[in-house]
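Consider the tokenized backbone below.
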């Protein structure tokens, strides 16, 4: 089954003012260049699986770790094609981890087990409606995308619902923000042809979308998608069959 959480689709539709289209996890069955040619932006959702460690040279996963090889085989090359084409890209939670791996970075599958790190996993003792509430601050780097979107704020509060996190950021990425225990919480790609932003927290829920930064990120993504669409409409397109 191929599915996406309703919060993601609703956020892209309502806050980015874009029409969400689900890309099934078909891996190598996709013609990635043709797919990219027909999109105005790429939004990478969160998800339960971990990226398989073989994609970043990590040790084998602990027994019982959930993986989705088809998603890996879809998102990792799709990210590379999107960046090469200048397609706007916004990545959330698992998405930021995939973005980092696709560009050559590494991950830690259980960041809360590292010395000095806090508990970043979802608190499953809370009612569903409270699991996306704020958990910890992030500290924003000057001069980046988030610095601009927040109007120069150095600190904001976010939620936390993950176990896997960035270990070594890809060389090309700029660390936009870190948590109070040093976990990478946001990255961007300086010099990219298009908008590229990844965040570790979840801005897409109904309550998080009320946060000014969440609204600003989805709006910026939508603006970038419309700008990309306008540029595409001004040049000939190749409508090859997928």
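A designed sequence for it:
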């Amino acid at each position: 089954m191929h599915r996406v959480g309703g919060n993601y689709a609703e956020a892209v539709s309502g806050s980015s003012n874009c029409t969400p289209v689900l890309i099934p996890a078909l891996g190598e069955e996709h013609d990635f260049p043709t797919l990219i040619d027909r999109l105005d932006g790429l939004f990478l959702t969160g998800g339960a699986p971990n990226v398989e460690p073989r994609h970043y040279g990590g040790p084998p996963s602990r027994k019982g770790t959930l993986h989705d090889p088809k998603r890996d085989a879809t998102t990792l090359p799709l990210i590379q094609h999107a960046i090469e084409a200048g397609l706007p890209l916004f990545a959330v939670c698992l998405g930021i981890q995939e973005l980092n791996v696709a560009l050559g970075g590494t991950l830690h599958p259980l960041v809360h087990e590292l010395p000095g790190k806090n508990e970043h996993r979802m608190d499953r003792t809370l009612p569903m409606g409270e699991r996306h509430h704020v958990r910890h601050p992030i500290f924003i780097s000057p001069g980046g995308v988030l610095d601009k979107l927040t109007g120069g704020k150095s600190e904001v509060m976010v939620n936390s619902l993950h176990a896997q996190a960035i270990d070594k950021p890809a060389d090309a990425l700029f660390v936009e923000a870190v948590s109070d225990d040093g976990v990478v919480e946001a990255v961007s790609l300086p010099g990219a042809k298009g908008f590229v932003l990844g965040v570790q927290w979840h801005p897409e829920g109904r309550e998080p979308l009320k946060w000014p930064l969440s609204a600003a990120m989805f709006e910026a993504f939508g603006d970038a998608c419309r700008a990309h669409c306008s540029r595409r409409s001004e040049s000939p397109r190749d409508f090859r069959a997928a």
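The domain at 6-233 is CATH 3.40.50.880 (Rossmann fold).
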